[in-house]
């Protein structure tokens, strides 16, 4: 860029010899571009307007900070900063830190707190990975961060703290605090007014606490008890087994109205008690007596069975001996029947033809009877017709005679 800063030709030194009256020209590096101005503005914004090198500037991600403290509120319900106005001890904001539980069984609230701790730790690890991430990294911290946010949102949507209706300290701290206040009241150190009525301010010899029942807490207790019952059932299933085919074998000899696991255990205990050495000898003696009786009954039944078998065999022998005389004549009888077979066939055909002829004769006789009946009816009608014709002829002849007589006269 060229800048003209010299004097013009009409100045007061224009007519003097040896004076350069040409305008002065100075060369500069050129005008600053818009991109450089934007970069300088961004650097100033990042440094907060501080350009000193002695001040350490820490980079901060505003979006990450916003997500960290999003939907977080300070609970000032129990906070008290009245200083000397109040007799009791001042209470500020309550800060609570969670730690993982031991090997004991976790409650749903403890499990919720543990998951919050693990998710927060996992988020910190992902942030560290983002800070030290290289282009050749195998994992994608951005995708992991998205999944962690989704899990955190699902965990917050459960509202387990509202369902449990307990403070993060737990019910034990509240009950301890209440007992401490009662003990202090008994010892003469009256605590602050808990819930005294405003109408009677002078009477401070008692403490009034208000208890509120919430159905959510009762529902939570029922759910926790149901979870405990389910755990106990799982333990019983592991001990007894889930095979339903074994249960009838255990409860087969029980009362039908009392088929329970306790009754089966009592029955098994009674059976195991019989295995005592003192009782085994008694049971052995009883079994020997029963075995002896069974042998006697078997001998008696064996004799009875043999007598019945002998009687049946004798009856069959008598029956077969009667057929010995007939068995010799059976071949002659069969030969005679073979020779008479054709005669029997002719006789059967003759009987069939005779039956046919008798049927035809019956039909003919019936037809003749019907024809005779018709003939009689025809004869009767002819007789009637002849009489009618004779009467008609006689009447005609009489009329002809009368006509002739009239004609003659």
TrEMBL record:
Region entry Disordered, spans: 1-52
Keywords: Cytoplasm, Dynein
A GO BP entry: mitotic spindle organization
Predominant subcellular localization, coarse grouping: cytoplasm
One GO cellular component, as annotated: dynactin complex
InterPro entries assigned: Dynamitin (IPR028133)
Biased composition range(s): Polar residues: 1-11
Family matches, as Pfam families: Dynamitin
Cytoplasm recorded as keyword: yes
Localisation per UniProt entry: Cytoplasm
Composition-biased stretches (Basic and acidic residues): 32-52
Superkingdom of origin: Eukaryota
Family: Belongs to the dynactin subunit 2 family.
Name of the protein in its database record: Dynactin subunit 2
Organism: Trichoplax adhaerens
């Amino acid at each position: 860029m060229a800048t003209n800063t010299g004097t013009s030709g009409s100045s007061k030194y224009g007519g003097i010899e040896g004076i350069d009256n040409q305008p002065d020209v100075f060369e500069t590096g050129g005008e600053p571009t818009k991109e450089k101005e934007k970069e300088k503005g961004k650097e100033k914004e990042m440094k907060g307007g501080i350009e000193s090198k002695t001040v350490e500037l820490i980079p901060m991600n505003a979006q990450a900070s916003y997500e960290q403290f999003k939907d977080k509120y300070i609970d000032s319900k129990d906070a008290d900063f009245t200083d000397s106005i109040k007799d009791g001890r001042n209470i500020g904001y309550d800060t609570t830190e969670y730690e993982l539980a031991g090997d004991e069984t976790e409650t749903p609230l403890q499990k919720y707190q543990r998951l919050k701790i693990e998710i927060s730790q996992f988020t910190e690890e992902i942030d560290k990975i983002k800070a030290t991430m290289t282009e050749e990294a195998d994992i994608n911290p951005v995708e992991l961060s998205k999944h962690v946010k989704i899990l955190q949102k699902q965990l917050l949507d459960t509202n387990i703290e509202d369902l449990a209706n307990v403070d993060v300290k737990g019910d034990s701290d509240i009950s301890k605090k209440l007992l401490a206040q009662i003990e202090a009241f008994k010892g003469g150190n009256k605590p602050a007014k808990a819930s005294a009525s405003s109408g009677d301010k002078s009477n401070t010899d008692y403490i009034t606490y208000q208890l509120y029942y919430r159905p959510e807490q009762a529902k939570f207790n029922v759910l926790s008890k149901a979870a405990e019952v389910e755990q106990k059932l799982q333990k019983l299933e592991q001990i007894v087994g889930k095979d339903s085919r074994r249960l009838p074998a255990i409860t087969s000899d029980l009362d039908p109205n009392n088929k329970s696991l306790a009754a089966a255990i009592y029955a098994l205990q009674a059976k195991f008690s019989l295995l005592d050495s003192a009782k085994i000898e008694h049971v052995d003696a009883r079994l020997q007596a029963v075995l002896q009786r069974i042998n006697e009954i078997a001998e008696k039944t064996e004799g009875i069975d043999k007598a019945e078998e002998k009687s049946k065999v004798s009856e069959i022998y008598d029956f077969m001996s009667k057929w010995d005389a007939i068995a010799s004549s059976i071949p002659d009888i069969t030969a005679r029947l073979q020779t008479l077979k054709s005669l029997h066939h002719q006789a059967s055909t003759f009987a069939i033809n005779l039956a046919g002829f008798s049927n035809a004769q019956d039909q003919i006789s019936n037809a003749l009877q019907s024809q005779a009946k018709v003939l009689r009816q025809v004869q009767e009608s002819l007789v009637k017709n002849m009489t009618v014709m004779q009467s008609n002829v006689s009447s005609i002849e009489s009329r002809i005679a009368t006509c002739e007589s009239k004609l003659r006269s």
